[in-house]
Design brief:
The complex is a heterodimer of chains A (about 160) and B (about 200). Chain A is an all-alpha fold. Chain A is about 80% helix and about 0% strand. In chain A, α1 (about 5-15) packs parallel to α3 (about 35-55). By secondary structure, chain B is mostly helical. Chain B has a domain at about 1-95: Rna Polymerase Sigma Factor, Chain: A (Orthogonal Bundle). Classes of the chains: A mainly alpha (about 160), B mainly alpha (about 200). The interface of A and B includes residues 43, 55, 56, 57 and 71 of A.
């Protein structure tokens, strides 16, 4: 086994006892024969393993519990108030990460397309009919055909002509 | 931390404030220490502890006992601490004076601990400060909490190869630091020897 490969194992699976028995025996054989890797492992234990063995437990200040109690009371009061209840329900949506917003937008877009595609044909026909009527009307006006104007508009035109 | 009895958890989940306080008293040291190792300052560790217990208070009622309470607790604690550390490192650089302020406060508040314990904390802190939050969380879960690779992976929601590579990079950094310290000490020793021989 090469020293580089052994040192890679020493830094990880060997130090953490995650190697299978066969692989473990291989590393140990190498360690017995190789002073450089033994020194490497000694330095690793001294710098990155042993210092953590003496770690103790600490206690938070008593103010932390007081703050927790205050927050719990605050949350209880909020849950009784309708406005805050609604705000609390909506807040997680507003905190969503950007990709989630994008996904939601694309989903909404697809939904709109699907809804429009499934729209009753009769409605689509009437929309199409209205649009083509308007097109004919506008192109007629452009060509100077005033017959297309309805009665009211024609009368207005006459009044304007008389004033003019 | 000792495992907390099912009965106490159920009572707290039903809204019994006394039971919740008992859980806090038994688990807050564990949560606070874990948070402190990851976020590295006392105010941040307190904030994380507060957030963790509020999350627990909100979801105790729906806790299904599919995993042990301790496993559930350290999952919440380590992820809350990690998110906090990442957010903090994006917002501001760490204040240098806290490196010296924190462990002293920790030892003063705990009457049973000696000055050596404070030194150990200082040493641990100076080591963990060399690592990024992801590496720190892996090292803490492995070296202090004693979790195996699978446990670390499931707690942090990452795969085992990522756990392995984070531990490897963390230990390489710590080894380099150790080597640098040893060579400084060696130089200091040689320097002292030279001064002593000139003095003669």
């Amino acid at each position: 086994m090469e020293c580089k490969k052994v040192q890679d194992k020493l830094l990880t699976e060997y130090a953490d006892k995650e190697l299978g028995p066969e692989e473990n025996a291989k590393v140990e054989r190498h360690l017995t024969a190789c002073p450089d890797c033994r020194e490497f492992f000694g330095a690793l234990r001294q710098s990155a393993v042993i210092p953590f063995k003496e770690a103790g437990e600490m206690r938070p200040e008593s103010t932390v519990w007081k703050k927790i109690q205050e927050k719990i009371e605050e949350e209880r009061a909020r849950s009784r108030n309708g406005f805050w209840k609604l705000a609390d329900t909506l807040t997680p949506f507003l905190r969503m990460p950007q990709p989630v917003f994008r996904a939601a937008f694309v989903t909404a877009l697809v939904l709109v397309v699907v809804v429009l595609a499934k729209w009753p044909i009769s409605y689509v026909d009437s929309v199409y009919g209205y649009l083509s009527e308007q097109m004919t009307f506008l192109s007629g006006l452009e060509a100077g055909n005033t017959d297309l104007l309805n009665g009211d508009l024609k009368e207005d035109d006459i009044v304007f002509e008389e004033i003019g | 931390m000792q495992e907390i009895e099912r009965e106490l958890i159920t009572q707290a989940g039903r809204g019994d404030e006394g039971a919740f306080r008992e859980i806090y008293q038994r688990a807050s040291g564990y949560v606070y220490t874990l948070a402190y190792r990851v976020v590295s300052t006392k105010p941040d560790a307190e904030e994380v502890t507060q957030d963790v217990f509020l999350k627990i208070h909100r979801s105790l009622g729906s806790f299904k006992f599919e995993s042990s309470f301790k496993t559930w607790l350290y999952r919440i604690a380590v992820n809350t601490a990690l998110n906090h550390a990442k957010k903090r490192s994006r917002v501001t650089t760490r204040e240098v004076e806290e490196v010296f302020e924190d462990p002293a406060t920790v030892t003063q508040s705990d009457a049973g601990k000696s000055i050596e314990a404070g030194e150990t904390e200082l040493q641990l802190k100076s080591l963990l400060d060399q690592l990024n939050p992801d590496q720190r969380a892996c090292i803490v879960l492995r070296e202090i909490e004693g979790l195996d690779y699978r446990g670390i992976a499931s707690s942090l929601g990452i795969n085992i190869n990522t756990v392995r590579s984070r531990l490897k990079r963390a230990r390489e950094t710590l080894m380099a630091l150790g080597q640098a310290q040893r060579s400084i000490e060696k130089k200091g020793f040689v320097g002292q020897k030279e001064v002593a021989s000139h003095g003669m």
